[in-house]
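Help needed: design a sequence for this.
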């Protein structure tokens, strides 16, 4: 790099300038060079250039000074420019070499890093090759073992679920084996999640009770064995006595036999010598029941694990003492799925419960609710119909509500579910819900007839039914006398209640219009026969009609009320009518 050598100190430069002849440097040049030296010193201090060694700042300073000298020179300007150009070329070449050296170092560093990465990759590749080789060896061993097992199996019958051609195809057998293994794993996992601790505890208690009963029966059995041996000895003696011609008296024979029994000490300790054929065909009832229960549970688990849900459902429904006819077993069937297109397992269990239920025997309340809910979800409404009509369910309000809710969400089975809900509600004594179910089916006259026979039905219940099944015909039938009997619902109470509800006002107004349209006598008869409504109630009805811009209805009602008190309405103004109200109140 180009460098201008500066003087060691300003004093040395002054001595050199003094030694130079005056004829070579003029005063102007002296001042010029002095300013250059001061500029150099100032820039070096400002830029903090190092005293020794190459420096980019020092090169910039001297380059600037050199340019100033060239610009001041006249005769040697071309020579100085040539020198400066040579120096610039040399400096650029040095910089280029330095850049190349720096790039070479970076390249070497990158190559070193890549070499390390490549070495690591090679190690990993070697490990992967070893792992692949191990997997190949294991695969070959497994294939060889599978081939050996396949050759060693003696198949006497065709595999269920496969055709003859598939049973002879190794690939089809492998696929079927994988399917069965996956199905078995899923069933085992489902079994682990569906085992009920309550059922286990109940079975443990039953086993303990059965064991205790078995011990008692074993003791009784030993006692009977001893008694049997004694009786057999007496029988043998009597047989011998008869064969010998009854030479000795019978009394002596019996005494001798009894004495012989006492001497032989036939006790419970010798009962083991009795012939086993005596009780070979007879075992205690408790032991039979215990074995039957154990075998039934084992068989159920075996069928359930093998996805034979129909057989498992029948076995569970017929289980001894009904230990599997419970909600836990239904949850097990709910958690599994049958083959595509088949009946859901939970419906198979529900159907088995209904088929095996004795006459007059009902399912528990919780089991009835869950069974009906699952059956409706799967569209088995006919199964629910059979269960309800045959009275094999525990009827409750919740069961009727489930049927009603399903009817509201599924228009295709609305009439059927409402009919079933009517049966349930009626059996539970829920009169207003029974009548409401009939009204929702359109059987308004049947509902009115039913309500006429209900002794506990109140006016609030009738209004409750009206709010949930609003209908002008229902309102008319409720407020009209039926076969010489008083109306089920007071017309004044019905109108007073409905007119306060914006959603029901129209029905009340239509009812009053129907009275007025048939003549003044009809409205008068309705008001006079309405024993449950006072004058205040009908006055309130007239006021509500006036607020709803039905002054004609209000005037008609007020006229009838005033006529009953011996007065008449002279002015059509309603305010004057209210002034006369105190006359008949």
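Sure. Designed sequence:
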């Amino acid at each position: 790099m180009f460098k201008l050598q500066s003087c060691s100190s300003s004093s040395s430069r002054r001595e050199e300038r003094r030694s130079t002849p005056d004829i070579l440097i003029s005063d102007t040049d002296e001042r010029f060079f002095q300013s250059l030296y001061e500029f150099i010193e100032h820039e070096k201090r400002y830029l903090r250039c190092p005293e020794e060694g190459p420096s980019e700042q020092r090169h910039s300073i001297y380059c600037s000074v050199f340019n100033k000298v060239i610009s001041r020179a006249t005769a040697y300007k071309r020579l100085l420019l040539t020198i400066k150009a040579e120096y610039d070329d040399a400096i650029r070449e040095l910089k280029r070499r330095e850049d190349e050296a720096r790039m070479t170092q970076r390249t070497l560093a990158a190559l070193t890093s890549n070499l390390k990465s490549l070495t690591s990759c090679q190690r990993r590749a070697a490990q992967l090759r070893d792992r692949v080789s191990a997997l190949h060896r294991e695969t070959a061993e497994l294939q060889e073992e599978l081939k050996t097992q396949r050759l060693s199996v003696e198949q006497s019958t065709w595999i269920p679920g496969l055709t003859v051609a598939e049973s002879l195809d190794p690939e089809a057998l492998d696929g079927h084996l994988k399917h069965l293994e996956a199905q078995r794993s899923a069933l085992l996992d489902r079994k682990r999640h569906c085992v009920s601790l309550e059922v286990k505890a109940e079975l443990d208690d039953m086993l303990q009770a059965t064991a205790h009963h078995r011990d008692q029966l074993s003791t009784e059995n030993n006692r009977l064995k001893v008694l049997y041996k004694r009786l057999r000895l007496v029988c043998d003696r009597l047989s011998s006595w008869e064969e010998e011609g009854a030479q000795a008296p019978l009394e002596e024979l019996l005494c001798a036999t009894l004495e012989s029994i006492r001497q032989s000490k036939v006790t419970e300790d010798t009962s083991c010598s009795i012939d086993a054929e005596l009780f070979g065909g007879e075992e205690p009832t408790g032991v039979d029941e215990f074995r039957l229960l154990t075998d039934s549970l084992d068989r159920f688990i075996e069928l359930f694990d093998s996805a034979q849900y129909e057989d498992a459902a029948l076995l569970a429904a017929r289980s001894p003492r009904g230990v599997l006819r419970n909600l836990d077993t239904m949850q097990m069937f709910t958690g599994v799925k049958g083959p595509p297109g088949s009946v859901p397992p939970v419906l198979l269990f529900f159907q088995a419960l209904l088929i095996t239920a004795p006459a007059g025997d009902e399912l528990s309340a919780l089991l009835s609710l869950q069974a009906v809910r699952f059956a409706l979800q799967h569209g088995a409404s006919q199964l629910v119909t059979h269960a309800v009509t045959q009275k094999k369910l525990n009827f409750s309000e919740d069961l009727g509500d489930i049927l009603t809710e399903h009817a509201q969400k599924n228009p295709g089975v609305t009439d059927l579910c409402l009919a079933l809900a009517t049966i349930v509600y009626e059996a539970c004594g829920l009169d207003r819900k029974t009548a409401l179910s009939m009204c929702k089916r359109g059987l308004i006259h049947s509902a009115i007839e039913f309500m006429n026979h209900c002794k506990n039905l109140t006016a609030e219940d009738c209004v409750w039914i009206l709010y949930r099944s609003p209908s002008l015909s229902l309102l008319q039938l409720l407020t009209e006398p039926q076969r010489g009997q008083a109306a089920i619902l007071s017309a004044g109470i019905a109108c007073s209640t409905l007119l306060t509800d914006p959603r029901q006002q129209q029905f009340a107004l239509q009812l009053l219009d129907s009275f007025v349209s048939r003549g003044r006598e009809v409205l008068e008869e309705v008001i006079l026969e309405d024993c449950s409504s006072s004058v205040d109630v009908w006055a309130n009805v007239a006021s509500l009609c006036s607020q709803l811009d039905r002054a004609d209805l209000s005037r008609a009602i007020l006229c009838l009320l005033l006529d009953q008190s011996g007065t008449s309405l002279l002015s059509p103004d309603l305010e004057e009518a209210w002034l006369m109200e105190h006359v008949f109140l």
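The CA atoms of residues 426 and 434 lie 6 Å apart.
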